[in-house]
Amino acid sequence: MFGGFTEGRKLAALCELNHVKVTPHHDCFIHAQLVGSTPAGGFVEAFTNPERDPLQAELFENPPALINGWLELSQAPGLGLTLSEDAILKYGKKLSA
After folding, report:
1. 28 or 97: whose pLDDT is higher?
2. What angle do CA 83, 88, 91 make, to 5 degrees?
3. pLDDT value of residue 1
4. Which class for 25: exposed (0-12), middle (13-18), buried (19 or more C-beta within 10 A)?
5. What would the pLDDT profile of 42-86 be if each residue is shown by its tens digit?
6. What is the pTM assigned to this prediction?
7. Which residue has the higher pLDDT, 79 or 2?
8. The dihedral of CA 69, 74, 79, 84: what is its sign?
9. Distance, CA of 39 to CA of 95 (rounded, Å)
10. pLDDT tens profile 82-93
């Protein structure tokens, strides 16, 4: 656990200085940008099985394509992901003010 994107970049810089690979656990759609943005990038785990994690399978309208072990990142701004309104309605919980 590294505390978000800013802390992740700091951690990646330390890893690069110490010849350690950055290999985040679990969410390949979120962590791939960190791994791809540093010379210390190793790999990301991908659990894209809808039976194992139905939320991840439905959460984004435009998840990156995972083909033969390679994840192609979006050229769109930010993470390049668009949340699915259907998934938000299905899995979300409205919080009262």
Report:
1. 28
2. 130
3. 66
4. exposed
5. 988 877 788 888 888 888 999 888 888 888 888 888 889 999 999
6. 0.75
7. 79
8. negative
9. 41
10. 999 999 999 888
Number of H-type helices and E-type strands within the chain: 4, 2
Domain ranges within the chain, ordered by starting residue: 21-91
Contact 81, 63 (CB under 8 A): yes
* Of 63, 59, 66, 57, the residue nearest 80 (C-alpha): 63
Sign of CA dihedral 2, 64, 84, 54: negative
**DSSP secondary structure letters along 45-83:** -----TTT-HHHHHHBSSPPPEETTEEPPP-SSTT---B
